[in-house]
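Before relying on records like the one below, remember that each one covers exactly one chain. Contacts with other chains, cofactors or solvent are not represented anywhere in the record.
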Amino acid sequence: GQEELSASSPDEQAFVAAAEFFGFELCARDLDRGTVVIRDKRVNREFEIDILEVFPYESSRKRMSVIVRLPPELVRMCGGGADVRLYCKGADSVLLELLAYEPDDLPTFKATLNEWGEIALRTLVWAKRDLVDFATWHARYVAATESAREVQKLKLGEPNKITALQAEVECKLVLQGASAIEDKLQDGVP
């Protein structure tokens, strides 16, 4: 039989399909340890990736992010850079404003996004950032997330150190690409 890919949302399904297209598959996820294992099917090699932080999607931010630590060989395979990276996905109206620089092909990229929007596809942009000084930033972030006062401010939607520190690393991003999916109505919705 044919293998069926699955994900928690249509947007996530697009990422799973893209990973499959490029020869990667998710093999395991351990939420207790904060790790995922992926396999590069081209060389039949597995890599364990540490999930260091997750910033959940919020409609006010129109994005979500994950910070991971990649093993050295996977860093090399991905063209080098820092082993700790932030990957961010979200609305083009937000993420394109957070780029470190404008790629030469940004006008073409924006035109493609507009074309997708004109035919009623829901678009999602994703980008990354190498986090060279992660340990210093992370110590401040952990302190903020452990502060009852800052957590209360976050819950009340007030300015707080948690969202400020998230924004501090969710900038200077490098554009990676975009996906477009049909925004199907839920079952029972006319």
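The beta strands are 24-30, 35-40, 45-58, 63-69, 84-90, 121-130, 174-182.
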